[in-house]
Design goal:
alpha+beta; four-stranded antiparallel β-sheet; 3 domains
Length: about 450
């Protein structure tokens, strides 16, 4: 009879493969705290590396909060790596100071520190961003805790899509496992781990949900509750993805009216196309507009969306100030969203590239993300602004048009054309960031490798 640890490993291995979390040649940095979840994830990643062409390493972040206990954690993880001859990197931050300096919460400061640590590691190793993954040890219990936490404090549908297997360069290879399965795996294989003392305190809402609410639901209501909550989260995610796609289609129509798809200077006008759309889409359209203007969505909540919705049906001339220096004003027939410019700080706009095998996934054609057939591209892909001689293929039959004419036809204001980020292979422009893309390298049934380009607007959105 097959031992249980093997069944649990196969479950995680299949989950990793089904979600294409670790394509061949991927370098994965595993965020290891020393707790049971991260130790099991690390053990599984190293097993996975024995039969798959990936390159794992261990990253540990000391947040500078728990003193001697944090130093103990770092030493524990280092000892594990030395014993097995695994690559180990320690990064130390004063998260409380970061919190004070940036006027953000400790939780947010911790996220910023971890994000910085992984990016430092990637750059130190000189790894292409498209071939780099960050593995986090979230499990099914964590997903359910987040779901219930967001539900209890108030959230839209997006807050119920609590965690994903793959988000940007972040992967969660044991998200399919329950805490019970993780502990069973660790116990059977006699793995050692350490416990964060703060996990035992009821001072934190998440701990109360973990220690009291979830056990009561599982033991007192339904032993399959974790699986059901996880399934609901997945279904909600599918619904939100659909609403996002429809909202993006409407916003594209709005952008044609405002000429803002290619730079924040022109602002975004939510006019006739916005009012024609179903009212259920309006919050999603507004959030998309915020994201395009600010380069991120995290700072915007339901109250900011509602403020714009109130303008939509208010009097002309009214206005409201929003985060990230965005101002919304009611005009005749619509709402104008503009972002104020800081003359001393020019916001950076980047295009990020990722290359991975294509296995028939749904094509991600969004305002800020485009997919191309990588094998059809014969010239080196670079990110730049426009040059003399630039063109784009505008029809599947190969017809071309000069980039200057395309920008004029698309209503891009002349004052911003020189600064628009482009992805180009020689003089052939693949994509005007946030706008039109070439017809020459479309994904089809013969595609084997995807080139994914993402316009970040100066911020990474995870």
């Amino acid at each position: 009879m097959e031992i249980r640890s093997e069944e649990i490993y196969r479950k995680a291995e299949n989950y990793t493969d089904e979600n294409n979390l670790l394509p061949p040649k991927t370098f994965v940095a595993a965020g290891i705290s020393g707790g049971s979840d991260s130790v099991v994830m690390l053990h599984m990643l190293m097993r996975y590396a024995e039969t798959h062409d990936i390159y794992p390493a261990v990253v540990h972040v000391n947040h500078g909060i728990r003193g001697d206990e944090a130093a103990r954690d770092a030493e524990f993880v280092r000892d594990i790596c030395e014993k097995h001859k695994w690559e180990y990197r320690l990064y130390e931050y004063d998260v409380p100071q970061i919190s004070r300096d940036r006027h953000i919460s400790l939780e947010e400061a911790g996220r910023e520190a971890r994000k910085d640590a992984f990016e430092r590691f990637r750059k130190e190793k000189n790894i292409e961003s498209g071939m780099f993954r960050v593995a986090l040890a979230h499990n099914m219990n964590d997903l359910c805790e987040t779901f219930l936490h967001n539900l209890a404090r108030g959230t839209g549908l997006r807050g119920l899509c609590s965690m994903k297997a793959h988000s940007g360069n972040i992967i969660r290879p044991i998200l399919c496992l329950t805490k019970e399965e993780i502990l069973a795996y660790a116990s059977e294989l006699k793995l050692c781990w350490i416990t964060d003392s703060t996990n035992e305190s009821d001072d934190y809402t998440r701990n109360r949900i973990r220690r009291h609410v979830l056990p009561e639901i599982v033991n007192g209501i339904n032993p399959k509750a974790l699986e059901h909550i996880a399934e609901t989260s997945l279904m909600t995610e599918a619904a939100v993805d659909y609403l996002d796609r429809k909202a993006e289609e409407v916003l594209e129509e709005c952008l044609k009216e405002s000429g803002a798809a290619y730079g924040n200077s022109a602002g975004i006008y939510l006019g006739a196309a916005f009012y024609r759309a179903d009212s259920a889409l309006h919050p999603y359209i507004i959030l998309k507009a915020f994201e395009l203007l600010a380069g991120r969505r995290r700072d915007f909540g339901r109250n900011h969306v509602q403020a714009v919705l109130d303008l939509a049906y208010g009097n002309t001339g009214r206005g409201v100030d929003l985060p990230e220096r965005i101002r919304a004003e009611k005009e005749s027939g619509g709402i104008r969203l503009n972002r104020a410019r800081d003359e001393e700080k020019t916001e950076k706009k980047d295009i990020e590239m990722r290359i991975f095998p294509y296995k028939g996934e749904k094509i991600r054609q969004k305002l800020c993300t485009k997919w191309f057939d990588y094998d059809k591209i014969t010239a080196y892909v670079e990110f730049r602004t426009r040059k003399t001689g630039d063109y784009m293929v505008i029809h599947p039959d190969g017809r071309k048009k000069k980039l200057t004419r395309i920008m004029m036809d698309d209503g891009i204001p002349a004052r911003i054309r020189e600064n628009i980020p482009l992805a180009a292979a020689g003089s052939h422009v693949l994509w005007i960031a946030g706008g039109r893309s070439t017809e020459a390298f479309r994904v089809d049934d013969s595609t084997k490798t995807i080139l994914e380009l993402t316009f970040t607007g100066g911020e990474n959105n995870e």
